[in-house]
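Render Cytochrome C in 3D.
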Amino acid sequence: MRISLYATLATLALAVPAVAQDGDAEKGQKEFNKCKACHMVQAPDGTDIVKGGKTGPNLYGIVGSKPAAEEGFKYGEGILELAEKNPDMVWDEASLIEYMTDPGAYLKAHTGDDKAKTKMTFKLNKNQADVAAFLAAHSPDEG
Ligand code: HEC
């Protein structure tokens, strides 16, 4: 058990390189107002960090988790294809920044499928690093 846990942690550490990020989590929480129409950030024990809608998946713990991994959420084919083609991928701050900037372009780039479509009809064009830092601050499994 212990060995496999360390192996898992080692894999995670490799998959989530410690890139220096300059996002400000506090500013990011305000910027997240643009996301909360569709996303909540709710801990597994039911604590609301940000109350939000259900059009998109709960983003608690998103840093360090695989794409399209929320059980019971009906993801689109594009992001499922992303997960399938990148079985070792976990979200980190850099990939979240790229994704929220243009989710459709992100899926096309990282599936290699020009027809990949996203169900997220929103693009954030500023302060992405702050939002990523805010999400990382509510991702206990990170690193
Ligand atoms: C209009 C609704 C809407 C808004 C606003 C929105 N999203 Fe989304 N988001 C979605 C939907 C729907 C999905 C599922 C995407 C799919 O299935 O293709 C999604 C997926 C995601 C994912 C992937 C989650 C996973 O489980 O892999 C992330 C990360 C994300 N959104 C971040 C954000 C952030 C950060 C913001 C604010 C900057 C935001 N979203 C704003 C609707 C939205």
